[in-house]
Amino acid sequence: MRGAAIIRVAAVRVAIVATASYKRRRTPIRKEDAMLDEMVREHAEKADGLPLRNEDGDIRAEVNEAVAAAVEAGDAARLRALFTDLHATDQSDLLLSLDPADRPRLIELLGDAFDFAALTELDETARTRIVEALETRTLVEGVRELDSDDAVYILEDLDKEDQDEILDQLPALERVALARSLDYPEESAGRRMQTEFVAVPAFWTVGQTIDHLRETEDLPERFYEIFVVDPRYQLLGEVSLDVLLRTKRPVAMVDIVSEERHQVKATDDQEDVARLFERYNWVSAAVVDDAGRLVGVITVDDVVDVIEEEADEDLKALGGVKADEELSDTVWYIAKSRFSWLFLNLFTAILASAVIGMFEGQIEKMVALAVLMPIVASQGGNAGTQTMTVAVRALATRQLGNANARRIVLREVAAGFLNGIAFAVIMGAVAVAWFGLPDLGLVIGLSMVVVLIAAALGGILIPLALHKLGADPAVSSGPFVTTVTDVVGFFAFLGIATLWFRLS
């Protein structure tokens, strides 16, 4: 009996701790303050008489000007009238409309009327500058208003010393929850998870769980399932809310846990987690530590952000832009970050020019070669980029691997051959019409077939090889593919022309 009592006490503690961990708080607004805010808001609406956004979905210029004027005048009441009840995304757009130096001042003037979740909508550079300029007291109060995942998203951009300064001023439960999330690796599930969740002991009944949900005020703002744990906080499973409400009250929670386990480790890479959500259509998943203890939950809205970030990184990488480059970065930082890629491209251009130099005498004898050879190289470069883009994306989504690599390579080569034949006919006709030399049409036609096949091979094999070597194909493939298509294009066209017309 005594052992059962200990288990029951521990289980009740599990339920309490699980729902009390890092809760959203709202400072009570006095009735007089609410009435004053409503009066100010009504006055502002009458004065402006304008919707927030125009037909294109952009913030209206008049609204941006009104915000800027209110910040310059230090009119907190006016700002509260403009900002109160706005969604965090709308607040972030208004924040970005200001001069960077005025953004922290706006937040200080708004006080608790500013939703700190708006900072999570900003790019890292803009967000870091704002956070570093804010008073510590303002930042602490703002962080306390956020869900844990949003709070971590803001704090992780700060130096360790600044993080500790803010964490030290938070209540113990909140401090421990945030510090634990910050200890996990960057871009891991532990950084993305929320520490707000509902967990109950296995022996609780459906009725006890429902009563607990109805009677407890400190519940997460939104949740989709109830987690079932043992006294050691080991995750036994989850029960979705629809199953909970359809089950009779006397049934034990452990008897209705889902057979399909939605679970990831806190150390799992966020991209791998996102892929699980995409593959199995998850809405949420439990996050456990290495010992199998429940530490948080990751939801589909967090995964959407991850997918967007990863796609953004891949797109930038294909263009030779660093993943962390943002529109708010300085001119010096942008120029410095792009220099290495441009330098590498310069090297490949010199290599291609060296190939042209090998046929300098032949080009002097037949000027038509100088006119046509950029067309061959350009077609090869575009074809190679097309194949490379498909290959890099397929590798990123795990659609291309050892099992189907051979088939995909052959498919790309076949597509390159067919396009080569088609453009051989087109450019052959153009060359004959342009220069009146049927043999020149044959030469450029053969060159088109060769360069498009080479582009297909380079576009697929180079990303595959880089992936095998552990390099990011999105970052590294471009210069190599460009080099292959340029060198092969120039060499094939000029070489075939040299042999055919005996120009050596």
From TrEMBL:
InterPro entries the UniProt entry points to: CBS_dom, CBS_dom_sf, Mg_transptr_MgtE_intracell_dom, MgtE_N_sf, MgtE_transporter, SLC41_membr_dom, SLC41_membr_dom_sf
Localization per Swiss-Prot or TrEMBL: Cell membrane; Membrane
One protein family per Pfam: MgtE
Membrane topology (UniProt): Multi-pass membrane protein
TM stretches of this protein: 339-359, 416-437, 443-466, 478-501
A GO cellular component entry from the record: plasma membrane
Keyword field contains Cell membrane: yes
GO molecular function annotations of the record: magnesium ion transmembrane transporter activity; metal ion binding
Keywords recorded for this protein, A-Z: CBS domain, Cell membrane, Magnesium, Membrane, Metal-binding, Transmembrane, Transmembrane helix, Transport
CBS domain segment(s): 257-313
Gene3D superfamilies hit by this protein: CBS-domain, MgtE N-terminal domain-like, SLC41 divalent cation transporters, integral membrane domain
PROSITE patterns: CBS
Keyword Transport carried by entry: yes
Record-linked NCBIfam families: mgtE
Protein family membership: Belongs to the SLC41A transporter family.
Known role: Acts as a magnesium transporter.
SUBUNIT field: Homodimer.
Database matches in PANTHER family: MAGNESIUM TRANSPORTER MGTE
Protein name (Swiss-Prot/TrEMBL): Magnesium transporter MgtE
